[in-house]
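To whoever is covering the structure queue this week,

Two jobs came back overnight. Logging them here so there's a record in the thread.

Job A:
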Amino acid sequence: MGRLRTLTTHDVEKLLFEGRQIVIMDRDVLQLDGWLNEHPGGRLAILHMVGRDATNEINIYHLSSTIRSMQRYRIGRLINPWKNRTPPIRGGAFADPDEIDLTESNSDSDLSDATTICAHSTSSDDVQHHDNARLRNVTKQGVVGDLPGATLTKRSPPSIPQRDAATEALIQKTIQGEVDDNIRDYPSLDSRTQREIEDRYHALHDRVKNEGYYECHYREYAKELARYLTIFTLFMTTLLHGWYWTSAALLGLFWHQIMFTAHDAGHRGITQNFVYDTLIGIFIADFCCGLSIGWWKSSHNVHHLITNHTEHDPDIQNVPLFATCPSFFKSIHSSYYDFTFVWDKAADFAVRYQKYTYYPVMGVARFNLYILSLHHLFLGPKPSRSTRWIRKTELASMACYWFLFGYCLVWRTLPDWPTRIAFVLISHIVTLPLHVQITLSHWGMPTADLGEGESFPQRQLRTTMDVDCPEWLDFIHGGLQFQAVHHLFPRVPRHNLRRLQSLVREFCEETGIKYTILSFKNGNEKVLGRLQEVTAQMELMLQCQRYMAETGESGLH
């Protein structure tokens, strides 16, 4: 391979303006247009990195062999420091650098080099205050961005209803309050501070690799397998003896436990081989549990990249049943589902009681996962050529699950409809702790977006919470209690996370990033408190609307 050509910031900006899918990795400029629809992790994972330095994300999500294979997409070497731009999928647009240079040469004002905050707080009307000459490139996503270094704005899709000015001001004030709190409680967003945090994170990652944290200890999975087989044997024994309720509870416990290993496989944390771990994940998730590992990986990859972002993280998009942030009051368009979550009367009603419906809904959440899995397999994005076999294997495995569980067990083995209904409900409700555990680490944490200036490790630690528990209880939590550690190093096998936690604590002490860890009880209280807080904010918004309707005044002073 010949020597790579050197590219300036201006050159890269020009490529972005032309619509190329450009990602920066260790100063290498990658053009990923040809790989966009072939990426096994889904095209959204790439789209969320366009215009950004994705060195951290690429290094922690991919094996060294995969990273080496990316060399074929290198088109040059960047010689200037790169400042992250907001990807079009998140509301950014890339202006013509030639036109910017011409405009700035005739202007006395310079763009501020300070990091600016983007927390869904800029209304669509604010777009008019920017220089239209700098906004030539309107993306296909229907959003408009601004220049690097300036506040990025987003135009709401036409299907999102607009609220009156007073209500909008109240929502924006509430959102900005969380932004201000996060700025106060976490390290400065200036480029020097965030660069130092990233340098320490790189050093920590080197230590994680060198000290063997990525090595999987298969003896731990031997213990796991013994536990799974014991639970499954007890389930079959009680079923054959006609102890149907006990059998249902044991089946739910089996699902609860075995899905932890599917999570490991989804992150390639077992064999670190894409094909082998995918097959393990399909066997557990699709064949044993009736859930699509392909759907899970598709949504989970995005969740890890843009954690707790209301418009992009599918894990917190649960309107009208739940709202964990006042941003949902404005109605948001999900970039993952390509669907508008409209705030309506149903949301007004359901969110008023969300603190009380949290556990009941978590008890039946598995039924929703069936729907999402089937939607992905039959109506989801067309798989790439390299992953077409996965979709076919999933469909076959899912068919086996429904034949064995739905027909052989529920229909043929259980004697009558009351028993069938009770069996299905009990087996699914028993998985409630798993769904609570999944939501626990994020629903009580900040959702404010502090912009492209925030480093990857700081955002992950700011939006994620660990759960403290004694080591002997680790099998109940399945490694999900170390979510903050896991979000920093998602490929590390879960049996190594407790040991790695001490290094993450040291990293947080060195960088000044707050490390949030609570007991399971206190974590639940934090989530319920957050739900109650958002309910109170919604009630205030509704009071404002009623006052406006009655008096014609906002009541805001």
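Job B:
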Amino acid sequence: MLERHRSLSRQAYPDVPRPPVRAEADPARTRVFTRFSLGVLLGGIVISASTSAWLPFRYTPELLLIGPLLAMGFLLAEQLTIDVDVKRVGWTISFTEIPLIVGLLTAPFEVVLAANLLAGLGAQVGRRAASHVLYNAGVLCLEIAVPFAVATGVNTGLAGVAPMWFGAAAGTLTSTLISCGCALTALHVLGGGMRLGPGVRLGVRTFAVGLLNTSLGLAGYEVAVKTEWGWALVALLGTGAVAVYRTYSGLLREQRDLETLGDVSLGVARSGQAAARGPSGTDVSEGDDSVGEWVPVAERIREQLDATRVVLRLCLDPRGEVSTLVAGKPLPESATGEGASLLRECPILQLPGSHVRSYRTLDAPEDIRDALRRRGAHESLVVPLRGANQMLGAVEAHDRVSRWRGFGRADVRLLHTLASHLATAMDNRRLLARLRHDAYHDPLTGLLNRAGFREMAREGLHAGTVVVLRVDLELLTTVSEALGYTWEDRLVVAAGRRMRETLGADVPLARLEAHSFAVLLREYSGQQAHELAEHLRSVIAEPYPVDRLVVEASGVAGYVSSASAEHDDTDVDVDTLLQRADVAVRAARNGEDGVRGYVASMGQIFLRRFQLVTQFRQALDAGQIEVHYQPKVALPERRVVGAEALVRWSHPEYGRLSPDEFIPVVEATGMVDALTTFVMERVLVRVRAWLARGLRLSGAVNLSVRNLADESFPDRVAEALARHGIPPGLLTFELTESSVMADPERCLPVLRRLRALGVHLAVDDFGTGYSSLAYLRQLPVDEVKIDKSFVLGMGTDLGDMAVVRSIVELGHSLELKVVAEGVEDDAARDELVRMGCDTAQGYLISRPLSENRFEVWLQARTVRKSRPGQEAEEHVADSVEEILALQHQDQV
């Protein structure tokens, strides 16, 4: 018997309160099915009338008992059913063959027809399936009229050959085939037609069930009529058969419940796949607002509960907006407004967990009864969907179709399990969406991060020409030190907010790292990108109010178009564009206007820097890195006291490189430790050689901020001094104030440990950094080196001379030696002598020399002194006059 048909129509409505999304029947097919139902009813009436006119009616008093018993039998058979879903049609296997064959053997056609109609239509009304009453009435008539005609015809044709029950059995099996044929035809009319093979298999299985029921009914009748106490045996056999069928139905129900659980969980997961694919826009939320994708989930729950309607109220939006979805019978307008959920109208909110509550109009409280009436429902199951930390929604199931008694315990258990699975699946989906969101977004600003920007840029490249615009917020380091890094982060957030407001919500904006932002522009010309870059730069450069202060900032911007990469025959990819935008930013930082577009010549500079980075380690091993020495002389006696080690790189392609070009690259890539170790080892070897010749000269090595942040560096220095046998006082480390004060908490302990070893420490380029007495007193140093820019200007600028004199006096007051760099003429040297400067270094004495040339230079200033009875020893002459005098003695 056909119970119901199903058809889905998906439609999503935005905003709150949202009209419910419904799954309803196709109107066109409904009209066709209505005409088909009228045809079935008309055919049933005609055949029933013909059968009644053909077969005579014989009244007996027993009919008063047989009629009600047959009606009860048909009604009981309708209740003890096994429901099977075939596509969009509910297939119900019942025991109607048993009362039918009994009726064929004991009662006239009219009595059996009336009993079947009364039981069948009454069951349909009880199941609230009145929409198909025309079709079912026609099928009920055919199921009785045709079997009676067949049974009469078979018994007449086989009179005297076959027993009387043979015709009744044949007629009963015909009823089964009629039901199956009508149902398959209805399935085809509804647009869910089956192929021939599955249709035949379903018909065979239905016929097998009908044959079993017919056999049971016939055997029971024969036993009850011809055997003493046969009715007891029939009752026993019937009880066993019912138990078998009920057990099979229960197992089938459990299997379908498990399938439903899997379908619901899979449906929830699929509904969230679109939201979890990645950064599909500039503002990605946690949830997926596509309510229509939940229609299959709601419909699947309705099918399994056999309910006339299922209402899902889901909180899919992170802002708490609720979406309503209806599967089955449409929800009346009075029950679709905001706050119309039964969840809000019943005390289930105060209950822990996800308890299912059942409400009926007969015994529910008045408020719940009114809520059910507004929904046009007589019964409802309500269960909340609770996640780990919040309410996710609710499920309402209204009015079970296939039973008079309504929802049972199995339905409550199923809905409870479905709600648990649904809530867990929604929680997992939210967690997955959050993880995906965090993977592509910056946690500080909420903007896209580098990974998210790369995905967006990759999508943009497939669509056409894009421009990658990089903007860097420039903050003074004193801001972080004065206000703290928390306030610095707030400035970065404020800058990102300003850029977002300027660009709008549709333009992808990312925070790459620290103070660097990136913008993806689609179909922008170079001039438009330049104008936007200037505007963004001015926007983020506006003062930032911090409490009662106003923090000044600036910005630089660089941009590159994907079209430029196409013109220079380079493969266009996101990493290349980001790399070139970074090069443009660096060029803008060195320029005056603060905005630069990428040009090919910038790429050559970047390529050169990249080659220097990758080739430096090989250059160390290949001997391309050399150590040059610039001597230091003591004033006023002009005696050589040591030399500063300076690095030179003889590149096979670029020639001799300036330290200003490759040292910053080496420091930025973290290879400065290897460079410092290399220079220190060469200096210690040279000092050891000088000691072997009787020359006590010191060697000076420049340190980087990375060296000062390495806690193991003093241990390596101590090991090297011990290995070469060098007194610590002959090794000097030169450092700048800025390198120390970049991270004084880490640098000062390292300096103190070096000082404890006996190594000399010198402040290089003094006068250009913090240059204050407070900072100088904190540093455990032995000498200060006046920056050469002041020494060079002494002859022409009285201010520079005053600075040099102040540094000399300051150093001596702190018991520090003072070294003057950049001494290039006799006048500067003589003035430094008058000021009391301790040591001089510069071109007047010597340029930086390679090891061999420095040894020649030193040899020219080294004399061999011999005394009677002693070995000759070398020492550095105090002056040129002493060299000439000693050489004259050697000649004599």
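Note for Job B: The two ends are 138 Å apart (CA to CA).

Please reply-all if you pick these up so we don't duplicate work.
Q.
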